[in-house]
Amino acid sequence: MIMAISDVKLLGRCASPYVNRVQIALNVKSINYEYLEENLGSKSSLLLNANPVNKKVPVLIHGNNSVSESLVIVQYVDEVWTNGPCIIPSDPLDRAEARFWADYIDHKWFPLTAEFKLTHGEGRKNVAREKIIEGLVLLEEVFVKCNKGKPFFGGDSIGYLDIVLGSFLGWLKAIETSVM
């Protein structure tokens, strides 16, 4: 029996929250894809050809085209596959706010967790811990504002910010466990 090769491939690393968010988006949209685990110490020619600029995962290969960077990939998945629930808000203002907060999560809040792990000394660790908590309080306020009393940032179903923040929950739990 010959197996059909999927025209959708995801190059990734299983422990990467950035790869995990692409997996979540593909699963929300019920997209069949082939997952290819990358060894970042010895990058495959497929990865180097698919992402010659950054040479990192995740990379989504759709047919003969490749899309890099997790936030861009999630948006691409939502725009190309219109079946299933919408991931990105349809309202332009809601969409802009979601992109703003996704950028905040990736570039301001999540890096605080790395800062915390690398910080030495109890006083400095406490300061880093407080910054992480302040960020979570802010994100909780955003959640209350965006969810309109529903279970997800986007309302009734999982959406862009749920995927972006949710992809870091495993890492957050690991950090919480290691410091308690």
Protein model, in words:
The protein contains seven helices and four strands. With 180 residues, it is an alpha+beta fold. Helix 1 links the parallel strand 1 (8-12) and strand 2 (34-37). Helix 1 (17-28) packs antiparallel against helix 6. The radius of gyration is 18 Å and the shape is flat. The N and C termini lie far apart (52 Å).
In short:
The chain has 180 residues and is an alpha+beta fold. The chain is 56% helix and 9% strand. It has seven helices and four strands.
Features:
180 residues, alpha+beta, flat, four-stranded mixed sheet, 7 helices, 9% strand
Poorly predicted runs are none
Number of strands: 4
Radius of gyration over C-alpha positions, nearest whole angstrom: 18 Å
Helix content: 55-70%
What's the story with the biggest beta sheet? 4 strands, mixed
- Hey, roughly how much beta strand do the residues contain? 5-15%
Count up the helices.
7
Q: What class, by secondary structure content?
A: alpha+beta
**Overall morphology:** flat
H/E series: EHEHEEHHHHH
Strand arrangement across the biggest beta sheet: 2-1-3-4
What secondary-structure arrangement, pairings included, does this model have?
Blueprint: E1 8-12, H1 17-28, E2 34-37, H2 45-50, E3 59-62, E4 65-68, H3 70-80, H4 92-118, H5 122-147, H6 160-166, H7 169-179
Parallel strand pairs: 1-2
Antiparallel strand pairs: 1-3, 3-4
Helix pairs in contact: 1-3, 1-6, 4-5, 4-6
